[in-house]
Amino acid sequence: MWRLAICSSEPQAQSVAQHGDDADSGLEERLGARLLNRSTRKVSLTEIGKSYYERCVHILADMDEADNVVHALHLTPRGTLRINASVAVPSLLAPVIAEFTSLYPEVKLSVTMSDRMVDLVEEESTWRFGRHPYRTRASSYGA
Fold first, then answer.
1. C or N terminus of the chain, fewer CB within 10 Å?
2. How many domains, the chain?
3. What are the tens digits of pLDDT across the range 107-118?
4. What backbone phi and psi angles, to 5 degrees, belong to 113?
């Protein structure tokens, strides 16, 4: 993990230089360039330091933007929802589908109507509406 101290003023740079000399010199050593001009009274950025600082500000802004994009994508449902329903339930399902599509416009619905037994995994269906395929009148699951 990289530690980056961004200073917006000379007093801040002085404080960072006093408390972070090891980190600063380690960064300068790793880069092979001097980033700060240091004296007993003043610390300022070198030209290379200014360039490095400006690039880091852009990188941090890009990271913030990337975080925001991921956050927005995570919050908004999208993709395809595959539904398999019995031919007996369209009147019950239609209002639900209408409301769902208005609430989540980025979700594409793929609805199949069938009374045959469906393998949800094989046919990549997400939901099945209808009679339980293993339930019979004599089933231990109840009526």
1. N
2. 2
3. 998 888 877 776
4. -105, 125
Task: Indicate if the pLDDT at residue 138 is higher than 60.
Answer: no
Domain CATH code at residue 64 = 1.10.10.10
Kindly tell me if the per-residue pLDDT of 3 is higher than 60: no
Q: Which residues contact 10 (CB under 8 A, 6 or more apart)?
A: 42, 43, 44
Give pTM, 2 decimals: 0.46
**CA separation for the pair 123, 86 (Å, rounded):** 15
Q: At which of 29, 58, 74 does a domain end?
A: 74
Domain that holds residue 106: 77-129
Residue 142 structure tokens:
């109840």
Assigned domain for 111 exists: yes
Strands 36-38 and 43-45, how do they pair? antiparallel
